[in-house]
Amino acid sequence: MVDFSEFMLRVLFSGACGLVVGLDREIKGKPLGAGAYVLVAIGSAALMVVTLNFALSGVAEDEAMTIDATRLIQGIVGGIGFLGAGAIMSPRDNGRLKGVRSGAAIWAVGSIGIACGLGYLKEAAFISILIFVVLNFFDWLHIRGNK
User: Fold this and answer.
1) Which residues sit opposite 91 in a β-bridge?
2) CB 114 within 8 A of CB 127
């Protein structure tokens, strides 16, 4: 079981990691504000911890009830996909889609929440930094290519 203080640590750390990515997108005026990134990270982490606690609590010992945490991961990833699609829905005049990187970033932030919820905080921090670097690198390439 994950005690409440560990629950808070995982969820708050997840939110901080989501904020790293979200602030970058917010400052640059990209689709989906910082709040969306933080909420996706926090929600994913909280769902993972609560599911783990439920599975380990013994409540699910009834043979009719089975718990598979990987199904929750699938649900989180699929659900965030709909949110990401919303960021991509507006096409540009030149026929290219707008918001694809933001859509991919919100999806990737879900993995941060999942990692934090499972207790992989170092991995989540690394994922956050990597997403930040990748987004900024491609923003830099885009700016450089338009000169």
Assistant:
1) 97
2) no
